[in-house]
Amino acid sequence: MNTLSIWPDSAQGIARTRVGGARPHRKFTGWQYLRVSFDLVVWALDNNATPADVRAAHELCREGEHAEGEVDRRIGAFYVELTAQYPDSVSLSDSPWADAPLHKATDHVTMCLTPSCADEVLEAIERLAAHHNLMLLDLQDGSVYPPPTPVK
Q: How far apart are CA 142 and CA 118, in angstroms?
């Protein structure tokens, strides 16, 4: 399981909490563990797009800038096929998704997967991304996986 560990910000064991004004300090009582999702994004960019182009497009998305227009046919087909196998409208307890519904835009789909997500789900994402000529961005380390080059 992926977790995020939080430690107090002072040597005396006092965790500082200042949200919306001054609050009294709280005594640190121990480690806190939070579940962290595993996030992947598929992108429908031009065939000559580089990993840097994918990262730049993702940064624009994070800033709230999205391409307008019709959903790219590759993104639409990817989303329909993936959610036919792994619906994003079911209870999250019965789903590989840590957040649902999936974020679908004109040129990308963001998938937040649970830490316990089965390998078969990841394999399906990789297979469908390759089949639809989509670039796959791994948000954990910024790796970009281009679709495989077709053999001629």
A: 21
